[in-house]
Write a structure and sequence with these properties.
Blueprint lengths: L2 E7 L3 H14 L4 E3 L8 E6 L4 H23 L5 E5 H7 L1 H6 L5 E3 L7 H13 L6 E3 L4 H7 L10 E5 L1 E2 L10 H4 L4 E2 L2 H13 L4 E5 L7 E3 L5 E3 H8 L7 E5 L8 H9 L6 E3 L7 H6 L6 H14 L4 E8 L6 H14 L3 E6 L17 H24 L5 E9 L5 E5 L5 E5 L11 E9 L3 E8 L7
Parallel strand pairs: 1-2, 1-3, 3-4, 4-5, 5-6, 7-10, 10-13, 14-15, 15-16, 19-21
Antiparallel strand pairs: 8-9, 11-12, 17-18, 17-20, 18-19, 20-21
5'-deoxyadenosine binds next to strand 15.
């Protein structure tokens, strides 16, 4: 019997990857994905714990699901509710105490057990028993060994998780607690997954990891491979046209990886390299274990090798003890580096992290003011970066239909969204890389005309 599965994804790209894997894991048990929670026999909330707002949203969504569940119950239908992801890991049984309607809590390193948990819950409920299951151990190796392989990948760009967890312990961050210690998948597993995706028509992969450039997976030769070596190996796969990776830590940006940006043609000229703050004092308090100057030198070396590299980053404003001068140092750094795109956040105190215990927390008004100033500067830089591509010809991977009839949306090598109108170019279809003359730029996207269709057949 077919049953319906609704998964809501919060937070980062690793959760997007996990959501796809959970859907694949449930498919053999007859679950088909629905976009409509009121239809669902099973609802999974794949949650994020990184900032308070994201974590609190989960509880209001559980409330909404409870209303849908009640409505279904009146029609004689059941609904199971599972909380997955990093809130599940951080709060465990507490979720069930706070929201007794939840049936299952499953952490990011245990979700391969979801089918078994759902089967057990279904069976015991049919026998009239009220059960609640909580699984939050760190069984990451087992998880990757058990994941189903992508069977019907839609679209030409895909994520491949290669590394998870973090040993850095920045004092503001929950990741080392929710995702656990650093773990790298074996090279052979990553290569096999990528080859399978390419056979299904994928032409671009993004290697994912909380600390992706700390990758140290076991190679087929029994030796430890770095991310640079992994990228060089993946670049040999025929048909794989673009490789990206995210998120990187400045301390793990080694010379070989910098060289990859110059030497590996399919490694895209875009790098997300968060620094968080432009003040050495704040960086030390954050336990980042690098200085502003170290970061600047890395950027210089990268730009020497790859002058057109587009840079992205993350910034936190209002970290405990951050003064106006510290904040101005962040603004100065942003001005000096020049970002193509970046994310910025107000510091959010997370339970169990050292910075949350600091006495000198910054008030919300100050945080809001600083965030507005930083975001205005970053928006200006993003627009300037986009405008500088007007008049250039860029290869664009066409990814999906646009809003208007006949329009397709793709990505430039620099991660910019590019809108094009498709006429009668035979090869200008989703999955093709076409050459586009950029004619206009806005804050979030570009427009252009296809000047040459693909030499690579569409998927
Ligand atoms: N408060 C605000 N931002 C945070 N980040 C991580 N933890 C916090 C926090 N407690 C941001 C960092 C990180 C990104 C993924 O989220 O900038 O790089
Ligand atoms: Fe969190 Fe720092 Fe690890 Fe990034 S490097 S996941 S910010 S602890």
């Amino acid at each position: 019997m077919k049953r319906k599965l609704y998964i809501k994804t919060y937070g980062c790209q690793m959760n997007v990857y996990d959501t796809e894997r959970m859907a694949e894991l449930m498919a053999p048990d007859g679950f088909v994905v629905t976009e409509e929670p009121s239809d669902a026999d099973l609802v999974v909330l794949n949650t994020c714990h990184i900032r308070e707002k994201a974590a609190e949203k989960v509880y209001s969504d559980i409330g909404r699901m409870r209303a849908l569940k009640d409505r279904r119950a009146r029609a004689g239908k059941d609904m199971m509710i599972a909380v997955a992801g990093c809130v599940a890991q951080a709060e465990g049984e507490e979720i069930i105490r706070r929201a007794p309607v939840v049936d299952m809590v499953v952490g990011p390193q245990t979700y391969h057990r979801l089918p078994v948990m759902v089967r057990e819950t279904t069976r015991r409920r049919a026998a009239g028993e009220r059960v609640r299951l909580v699984e939050t151990e760190f069984t990451i190796e087992e998880k990757f060994a058990r994941l189903q392989r992508p069977s019907d990948k839609k679209g030409p760009a895909a994520f491949v998780t290669v590394q998870e967890g973090c040993d850095k312990f920045c004092t503001f961050c929950v990741v080392p607690y929710t995702r656990g210690a650093e773990f790298s998948r074996p090279v052979a597993q990553v290569v096999a997954e990528t080859e399978r995706l390419v056979r299904q028509g994928v032409v671009e992969i993004t290697l994912l990891g909380q600390n992706v450039n700390a990758f140290h997976g076991e190679g087929p030769d029994g030796k430890v491979w770095s991310l640079a070596r992994l990228i060089r190996r993946l670049a040999e796969i025929d048909g794989l046209a673009r490789i990206r990776y995210t998120t990187s830590h400045p301390r793990d940006m080694d010379d070989d990886l910098i060289a990859v940006h110059a030497e590996v043609e399919t490694c895209m000229p875009y790098l997300h390299l968060p620094i968080q703050s432009g003040s050495d004092r704040v960086l030390a308090a954050m336990n980042r274990r690098h200085k502003v100057d170290d970061y600047r030198r890395i950027i210089d070396r990268l730009r020497e090798k790859r002058p057109d590299l587009a840079l992205s980053g993350d910034f936190i404003v209002g970290f405990p003890g951050e003064t106006d001068a510290d904040f101005q140092a962040t603004m100065d750094l942003v001005r000096a580096v020049g970002y193509a795109q970046a994310y910025s956040f107000k510091y959010s105190a997370r339970p169990g992290t050292p910075a949350a215990e600091e006495a000198d927390q910054v008030g919300d008004e100050v945080k809001a003011e600083r965030l507005a100033a930083l975001q205005a500067l970053l928006a200006e830089q993003q627009l300037a970066f986009n405008r500088a591509t007007v008049g250039r010809r860029l290869p664009v991977l066409l990814e999906k239909p646009g809003r208007r009839a006949g329009q397709l949306v793709g990505r430039s090598p620099y991660m910019q969204a590019v809108h094009v109108m498709v006429g009668n170019e035979a090869d200008a279809a989703i999955g093709a890389i076409v050459e586009v003359a950029i004619t206009a730029a806005g804050p979030h996207s570009l427009e252009g005309d296809i000047v040459r269709a693909s030499d690579r057949p569409a998927a």
